[in-house]
Amino acid sequence: MRRAWLVVVASAMAGGALLAGEFPLHQVFGLRRQAQLVEASLRATRAQNRSLEAEVASLRTKQGIEMAARQFYGLVPSGAKAVVVLPALPRERKSGSK
Question: Buried (b) or exposed (e) across 87-98, using 16+ Cβ within 10 A?
Answer without folding.
Answer: eeeeeeeeeeee
